[in-house]
Amino acid sequence: MRWRIARGHELSIVSLAPCDDGGDAYLGEFGLTNVPTLQVTRQHESDGQLLHDVVETLVGGAREPAHITMTQAVRSKGMRQGLHEWVASKKVAAFVRRQNPDVLEAHWATQAASMAMKVKHMLGVPFTVTMHGGDLYRAPSPSLPKIVLNGDAIFPVSQFLVDLLTKAKQPEGLPTVPDNQFDRSKLRIRANSIDEELIADAPADQHDGVMLVGNVGRLAPEKCHADLIDAFANVKDEFPIARLQIIGGGPLEDDLRNHVKQLGIEGRVELTGAMPTAQVVPMVRKMNVYVQSADLEGFGLATLEAAGQGLPVIATRTGAHTDIIEPGTNGLLYDAHDVNALTQHLRTLMNDADLRRQMGKANLQVARERYASEVIWARTERWTEAIAAHEPMPQ
Predict the structure, then answer these.
(1) Residue 298: CA count within 13 A, CB half-sphere
(2) Same domain, residue pair 248 and 174
(3) Cα–Cα dist 382/395, whole Å
(4) Is residue 97 assigned to a domain?
(5) Which residues, including other chains, have CB under 8 Å from residue 364's CB and lie 6 or more apart?
(6) Among positive and negative, which fits the CA dihedral 277, 285, 338, 266?
(7) 231 and 360 co-located in one domain
(8) Extended beta strands in the chain, E state
(9) 230-to-284, 311, 350 alpha-carbon distances in Å
(10) How many domains in the chain?
């Protein structure tokens, strides 16, 4: 958003997520307090407030066209949910009409995209949708076929998600993406990006002294931190000075601490717990090898941020890892849960400071040339401008 404002674009926000401090307070962290914002609650807290908003909408918002009538909403969603969604869509449409945007951008192919689709039907404003992992493999929206059919551009963040959406691949154990038919010319990969100021000037220091293996991520089942701990335990005796640092908190923190204790490596493994974002990058900068052990990722931003610090990366073959990592050049890949392969990759990099330097240098080039925000957002800008002009998007 800051990049776009600097380029002279006018922005406004409809937030459909809970925000305890209000939208402006949250945006203040990013210096965006002057951006017009509408905060829409996920659900009305009381029937009285819902009734008040229904009456207020009928009286003050009747000029806004409806995607569906109040009666249709109630019939399809039930009384309370139908009224809530009808009120919310009318509020959003009124806000959008006032802001008069050229394009709507839905971040997530769930509630946000469904709302953008409603507004398009009401006001005719084209919309794009950025798709993340959860959109396609945790709980795909039942409205996904309608979203991709009606969206003016579909932006998955990795080739992995493109393959899921188009059913080019269907990994075992994942929910099946609903059948969908849409014009594939609307499909573009819009990868996550890293701010230029966060990309290091030189690769991380590599030497044959202290060895720090690291990871950043929520301590949740899909991140598979136990695999990383097991692999580190396999090489600890070969590298007596090596340590493992896992940055992040989450529901498995106690379980992972117990696992470390059972392996007898408490003095060699640090679980930092949750850390403020501003402190994480300087800590990553001190690592020698970065490992991302997740078995499922849409786009692991922490992996990109580690690459942007000039670290060699070991990662699983999932999500954008296979887009970012060229094995042997800037990192190494392995199949999720293959602890033996991860162990060997750790051994390879921990034994070779020159290889770590070479891979770290290559990762800086990847971060700057392919994933810097200037690169990603300039490309997105060209696509969005084409949509606003009702022209085909550039390849």
Answers:
(1) 21
(2) no
(3) 10
(4) no
(5) 199, 200, 202, 203, 307, 308, 310
(6) negative
(7) yes
(8) 13-15, 37-39, 104-107, 127-131, 153-156, 211-216, 242-247, 269-271, 289-292, 313-316, 331-334
(9) 21, 22, 16
(10) 2
**Residue 111 lies in domain:** 103-193+373-395
- Amino acid identity, position 62: A
**Same-domain pairing of 272 and 343:** yes
Structure tokens at 192: 């996550």
267 and 133 within one domain: no
Tens digits of residue pLDDT in 151-172: 999 999 999 999 999 988 877 7
Is the domain of 248 the same as that of 167? no
User: Cα angle vertex 165, ends 164, 171, to 5°?
Assistant: 15
- What local confidence, expressed as pLDDT, does residue 173 receive? 75
- Quick one: tokens of 95? 């806000």
Which residues, other chains included, contact 200 with Cβ-Cβ below 8 Å and sequence gap of 6+? Answer: 285, 308, 309, 310, 364
The pLDDT tens digits for 94-145 are: 889 999 999 999 999 988 999 899 899 989 999 999 999 888 887 788 889 9
CA distance 299 to 189: 11
Q: How far apart are the first and last CA of the chain?
A: 23
The verdict on residue 87 lying in a domain is no
The predicted structure's pLDDT at residue 74: 58
Give the tokens for residue 233.
């335990």
Structure tokens at 11: 């922005």
pTM score, whole prediction: 0.86
User: Quick one: average pLDDT of 68-89?
Assistant: 66
Q: Answer yes or no: are the C-beta atoms of 244 and 229 closer than 8 Å.
A: yes
The Cβ-side half-sphere exposure at 203, using a 13 Å CA radius, reads 23
Q: What is the CATH number of the domain that holds 284?
A: 3.40.50.2000
330 with 357, same domain? Answer: yes
Residue with tokens 């966060």: 198
User: Is the domain of 205 the same as that of 188?
Assistant: no
Are 236 and 187 members of one domain?
no
